Target: F420-dependent oxidoreductase
Amino acid sequence: MRPGEVARMVEERGQDALFFPEHTHIPASRESPYPGGGELPRKYSHCYDLYVALTAAAAATTTLRIGSGVTLIIQRDPIVTAKEVASVDHMSGGRFEFGVGLGWNREEMRNHGTDPRTRTGLMRERVEAMKQIWTQHEASYQGRFVSFDRIWSYPKPAQRPHPPILIGGDGPTVLDRVLAFGDAWIPDFSGDQMFGRMEELRARADRPIEIQTLDTPVDPALFERLAAAGVRRANHWLPSGPRSIVEPALERWEAAIGQFNGG
Model:
């Protein structure tokens, strides 16, 4: 199924949101181990360009929230990416959610000219620079990694001041990034320890911080725990393939939601 077809199907079935992943490529060296263990699934090297997929999904739907889960901002030009985000949000009528992350594949980063040792500072500056582009008629930014003088860039996002910024990842310093420049945290579900980190995030925050989960298991009892912990949305991976493969997976997810809702 193509991105627009999947988006139309999940919207028609009453789902709230659809996120797409990003990898421009996967280095054949396989030096960086797959975080999930074992062999890297084929889907990592067989995916559409993220913003092409998002545009197709936006054009095929009218109410569905669409998002990046996640944009590898350390591998992207911030001026170009700010234009893409603003364009998708503008064309969708303000339905975009901007998930960003550091990534895990160090060879992939290096192929884009990114030094993995400085990627955290790079990520922060690129997000900060994009905020300037989205909110200022005449934007400029001066930092260690990102620097540009006065520019004009339109369209601006439909959402004000900009689409929500969802910080992905579950590494030891991810909460620092969420608190510094994020509107939400969107980790892969990682078990019981994640609930403790949710409590830590809320204890440290001086403003409301939304939490979503990616890669959430199909488990109504887990939905209960997530809801009790204040999680805004649980997301689950759908397989790639024809409708005969994708739709049954979605039906299993919906059945678990029905049990959680008492249906």
Summary: The chain has nine helices and nine strands. The chain has a mean pLDDT of 96. The chain has one domain: 3-260.
